Amino acid sequence: MDDLCTEAFARKPTPDRPLLGVTVLVVEDSRFASEAMRLLCLRSGARIRRADCLASARRHLATYRPTAVVVDLGLPDGSGDTLIRELASSDQPASIILGTSGDPDAESVALSAGAHGFLAKPITSLALFQQAILSRLPLRRHPRGMRLISGDQIAPDPIALRDDLNHAADILASRVDEPTLDYLAQFLTSVARSASDPALAEAASRLHAAGRRGKDPADALHAVSSLVDTRRAASAAF
Questions:
Q1: Domain extent at residue 180
Q2: Which CATH number does the domain housing residue 25 bear?
Q3: Where are the beta strands (DSSP E) in the chain?
Q4: For the whole model, what pTM was predicted?
Q5: Percent of the chain predicted with pLDDT > 70
């Protein structure tokens, strides 16, 4: 089913819900980041589908053609820029392809792969999210009349953050080989950026550096594990 085929039957966008009629596929393994995207879509009038890995995204795309695809660059089964390249070179590419990451340096990777734009985490600004999509939609799909630019910032449910921390703790409790270490470092960097947690982001960065330089990651793993445990204990209060 082609989601774009339903455009003629979709409700028309309005100034306060400018993305009515838009479907967004969010390819994101973080529950916290996904919750932020869900709230942004809800406030904007867009429908959302979610895939937590490359394989799941490809299954969605084999059946549906969303208006926009937002792809996290770090996924459990590979790099998101692989999917961006596939989408950009498809015979029927999505209208809008956006990369996202907790690493601002990843913007060049996403754009080189064929993304139309990039959303740096944390993604909390309603106005920036709406503009990233509206700026790439044809004018016939824009709301008519004056549209107030919202200054609202969304705040994801902290329970979703706890889910991410539990996921990280499960990984830390298992045997962490080199590919797992690389994934864990990027996952926690993304979560930390989304949660505005600079201490966790720095610890994840050190873990990533240890893996890249071939150093013993034991100290970096211990530091990350301690922070994850502290954050989990704090989140239990919610």
A1: 158-235
A2: 3.40.50.2300
A3: 23-27, 47-51, 68-72, 74-75, 78-79, 96-101, 117-120
A4: 0.89
A5: 92
